[in-house]
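Researcher: Next sequence.
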Amino acid sequence: MLGRKQEINLKLNQIADGLVLIAAFWISHKLRYDNYGGIWPESVKIPPFKDFIWLMAIVVPFTPLVL
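Model: Next structure:
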């Protein structure tokens, strides 16, 4: 029974890690795209977040392997 509980805990941790990773990518894109604080020059624009969603499909499933 303890093994099953550990498996469930591991899966929940992996899901939480994936959600944190997606949130980190989104927040970093939002800061860069909207240029909060004027850190980056105005002339440098990045594509909208929808152009990077395909990257999430590659990065998120393989993140637990790296961790």
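Model: The helical segments are 2-34, 53-66. Residues 2-66 form one domain.
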